């Protein structure tokens, strides 16, 4: 059983994304609303301070003597009881008779600064907002400074309550969006579940089954088409594997049957030494053929596992073709053909593999040529690739066969001729060697000539 992880489930992942987006939106909106409310509350506090301060400035301006100050202004200010409304007032002056309240050193510093400020009182949860205004002297009254303070605690309580409400409603909103998002994701992912059900219904006994495109949303068309393409490739590989197994069994059955038959005949009665030697030579030929098939299959298996060519020296392709022709000299003479090499190119290649590929291409051309035919080996360079093309006169090959001639054990002839003892792996080995050199293979049949070749990456 696979471990449970939220990231493994697309619906939960989408839900988390919905919730994350909602949290970001609610957070930004909450910050904006909180800032707006805070600024409005502070503006309201300052507006109230300015209104009350203007009234205080007007009252102080009307006082021109100590008696007016003592008999009219002080009683009026005391009767207002500003502290009950959250206000505090201090009037500072060089003359002690023209002061009001009990200004502390902090208040005196605010009086010198002027404008709006903050005053932190002992044992008070928040700083008071202050407003300071200087009133010039008039009559017997000296110059005075009015310091008016407003306690913003009610506003901060309102702001704190608003903040808590935002957090609560925001969390509730995020949870609501998550719940709705999960439901939407579940509904939206139904086509994927149908796709999964179709995939589970695929039967290995029916490799031609495909996923239905008609019932899928447009967004899943590419995924469904890609999956169907993968199924088609798997079906092709499966059929190729079946054909490969049948071809291997066919190729191995013939020499094994010969070995068993000859051995049974040999053991049926006493034989002379010469007859025994003849049968042993025949069995050795069959065993050599089996060895060649097994070695070729092992080489192809190594190539399929991603083995790459080791490039140690720069070689001339024309010189390598000449060396292979020296090795095939008797075969060329027996078939009565002529080989012409045109062009040359140099590159760092693995010579052993290169010679094996050239030998297979030349043997294929020689075996399918008649006496007097000319076989042409064209060597060239195309950008960062070297190319070798071996062509010979011959009957035209159907286009439907050309793409498969480099497949293992593939023969265009349905009668499965085994000309020259070839077991159908020669061109497959050429393809493997080309791939090991980061190259490709090609086959053409045109103008009465058949061409097989390979390209090699530098």
TrEMBL record:
Keywords: ATP-binding, Cell inner membrane, Cell membrane, Kinase, Membrane, Nucleotide-binding, Phosphoprotein, Transferase, Transmembrane, Transmembrane helix, Two-component regulatory system
Enzyme class: transferase
Keyword Membrane set for record: yes
Any one GO molecular-function label of the UniProt entry: protein histidine kinase activity
EC number annotated for this UniProt entry: 2.7.13.3
Reactions listed under catalytic activity: ATP + protein L-histidine = ADP + protein N-phospho-L-histidine
Domain Histidine kinase: 247-458
Top-level taxon in the UniProt lineage: Bacteria
Xref: PANTHER family: SENSOR HISTIDINE KINASE YKOH, SENSOR PROTEIN
Name of protein: Sensor protein
Originating organism: Aquincola tertiaricarbonis
